[in-house]
TrEMBL record, chains A, B:
Pfam families given in the database record: ADH_N, ADH_zinc_N
Domain of life: Eukaryota
Protein name in the entry: enoyl-[acyl-carrier-protein] reductase
Span of domain Enoyl reductase (ER): 55-414
SMART domains registered for this protein in UniProt: PKS_ER
A molecular-function term among this protein's GO annotations: enoyl-[acyl-carrier-protein] reductase (NADPH) activity
InterPro entries tied to this protein: ADH-like_C, ADH-like_N, ER, GroES-like_sf, Mito_Enoyl-ACP_Reductase, NAD(P)-bd_dom_sf
Its EC number(s): 1.3.1.104
Keywords: Fatty acid biosynthesis, Fatty acid metabolism, Lipid biosynthesis, Lipid metabolism, Mitochondrion, NADP, Oxidoreductase, Transit peptide
Keyword field contains Membrane: no
Length: 417, 417
């Protein structure tokens, strides 16, 4: 997604020494640290993770060192990275299994056409091509478009590819993690819900904020799940939350407690959820069906998705936004026909494209809740990316960025590169 | 559904002789044939199929002979049956697997509370309780509500449970088969279609009549399928029709020809449809994806439903209205999330309840197309129900009413009982 820019690769000798190459001797941005190797032409040294073919991150991900010309193309912005999460969609993009496949390009100057992964992150503006730009050095920006490629120390983006955020009172981690998981939870809870007895079978209304209406979700301890719990609490909705058992009972109890502290009304383990007793438990939660569950969130698939669907009330909607189990969603026909449950998918990228202004409002709303302490920081597993950090270290960190994600998602945190 | 009425069972001796019982000596409706056994009280002899517990029709279906008092409750209508089809939903109702379960009542006077099956059919009005009724002797009526119980020679219904149709130019078979299958096809084609790039993920628009937009359906030779083919042709839509292979190639070719004659644009066998070549064939039909398929109709489930879903274009809707294979619908998560396909069920009964006026217009529209010869009669396998027809014969006919349904659906045709 980064727009055309002039790139010169540094000499191997210069790279080996980790000093300026012959083209990079002076530093045009002295305030941004000594690591900006620059010369008479003001070239910036940068590093990018990239892949030139699809596969497992540990097999295909490489680190590229290159130079960025300080002569920026019109309407472009030079930025340095502060933090960038590792999301499941990023891994799927590298594997080639994601819904949209970015194009391999020669922009980065890699031996073969390549893609820089990373869909989410926060950058600091170093300079703008146009004096009149609304973006000024020191501003924080997040991607305004999908698949911008955030896993790199520096980049030149088109001004329209970036969205400025008010950094006051925010940490880089909060800013880096705002635009995927909390936004998904926000959109789904605000836009989907049961059919309200309308004339045709298709339209459905959103859940009514402040009404205490129920929704149910699996993968409740995921980033989206945790955001949904907190937003529901803030918005006057009630949540039933399905989690997988942890390695020990103590850990399960601790997680249950953690989600309850976030505002979860009901937390149930997957074993309880898939057992015969769940029906009675559900009847008691919904007061014998007097309070129907109008919305289900599914990020698992397989049996868990079917059980979510079976828990829903007449005319409800089940929104699938992920498929962690890699099992298809399996729907008894009766749920479709007689219970009038509708099954839809949710893809944040599409929403963002369709409703740019709505997205800005949503981001501001979420950031304001974050600043107010109404949204708790998502647990992260920080991976430090310093100038010296090796390709092996980064590749390994990405490959395992999702392991044990319940304890925190992988987050690349950039040093003063 | 029939309203309260006074019923007297005839004496066994009278039944054995198939003559009037001691309460039934005169015939208050002489114009309706000698079979109306009646006496001083004007009681009508009637026969009803019924079941008092769920199970296979051959196990639980029984024939009850009873008398109907000519003194009708206010706002009620006495009718005699002309024809009533055997639909899959009727069998499922008897089996107890249907979505709505009618209540076993004592209205019929059977030894145990019972239900009269049959959801569709046409009756002739014999008399109305109120002189001012809009229904007059000789009028034809079809059920205005679900589960009215059509498998009986005579009945007393509430006036509001019946919908008068203009019988001019119609056969009883045409009138008896108008309200389930053609209505389902009509509703689905007129109300469901792809998302039209609207802001939220849920709303979808109907197919645009006259545009040549594509839909795809399995079970294309079913009653709904045949109606959909013909309606699509009349309305300027195009259909891709999946049929199961017949016993011989000749029969398959004949069926293919038959559906093409009805107006099918493309007919494909399930084997072709589930093969690897289908993707290329589909690309050629849709001109390399330039003409996306916006709507899928599924009455099969299992692999066939998944293949229908995979054939659909971005943002399309798949409507399930049946599950003949008894296999659940299996959805790869990517179809939900990345292709934004939405999956809904269609239940005509619910539509009829929600939109009574719309249903009347639809019935009139379909009957007018039938009279114009624009809709071909659905193939039927007629089962004659005369006064003498035995319980065994009827039970057996119902049990096998759906066998070889591609050659015609079972239809009870009443003699001058």
């Amino acid at each position: 997604m980064s727009i055309g820019m002039k790139i010169l690769n540094c000499t191997p000798r210069a790279l080996k020494r980790a000093t300026a190459c012959r083209l990079c001797r002076a530093n045009p941005f002295p305030s941004f640290g000594a690591r900006f190797k620059s010369g008479p032409y003001g070239y910036i040294q940068a590093k990018s993770l990239f892949f030139s073919k699809n596969g497992e991150p540990e097999d295909v991900l490489k680190l590229h060192t290159h130079s960025i010309s300080p002569t920026l193309p019109p309407s472009s912005i030079l930025v340095r990275a502060l933090a960038a999460p590792i999301n499941p969609a990023d891994i799927n993009t590298i594997q080639g299994t994601y819904g949209s496949k970015p194009t391999f390009t020669s922009l980065l100057g890699t031996p073969e056409p390549s893609i820089v992964p990373g869909n989410e992150g926060v950058f600091e503006v170093l300079s703008a091509a146009d004096q009149s730009s609304t973006l000024q050095p020191g501003d924080w920006v997040i991607p305004a478009v999908s698949q911008i490629g955030t896993w790199r120390t520096h980049a030149v983006f088109g001004e329209k590819e970036l969205l400025k955020i008010d950094k006051t009172g925010l940490t880089a981690i909060q800013a880096a993690t705002v635009s995927v998981n909390p936004c998904s939870a926000y959109r789904i809870l605000r836009n989907y819900g049961p059919s309200s007895g309308l004339k045709t079978g298709i339209p459905a209304r959103p859940l009514e904020l402040g009404s205490g209406e129920w929704f149910i979700q699996n993968g409740a301890n995921s980033g989206v799940g945790r955001a949904a719990i907190q937003l529901a609490k803030l918005w006057g909705l009630r949540s039933i939350n399905v989690i997988r058992e942890r390695a020990s009972d103590e850990e399960t109890t601790a997680l249950r407690k953690e989600l309850q502290d976030l505002g979860a009304d009901v937390v149930v383990t997957e074993t309880e959820f898939l057992s015969r007793e769940w029906r009675d438990q559900l009847a008691s939660i919904t007061r014998g069906g007097r309070e129907q569950i109008g919305l289900g969130l599914n990020c698992v698939g397989g049996k868990s998705a079917t059980a979510i669907a079976r828990s829903l009330g007449q005319g409800a909607t089940m929104v699938s936004y992920g498929g962690m189990s890699k099992q298809p969603v399996l729907l008894p026909v009766g749920l479709l026909i007689f219970k009038d449950i509708r099954f839809v998918g949710f893809w944040l990228s599409k929403w963002n494209e369709k409703d740019v202004v709505g997205r800005q409002h949503m981001i501001n709303d979420i950031l304001s809740m974050t600043k107010n302490g109404q949204l708790v920081d998502v647990p992260t597993k920080e991976i430090s990316w310093e100038w010296e950090t090796t390709e092996d270290t980064l590749r390994n960190a990405v490959q395992h960025g999702l392991d044990g994600f319940q304890k925190g998602k992988g987050l690349l945190v950039f040093g003063d590169t």
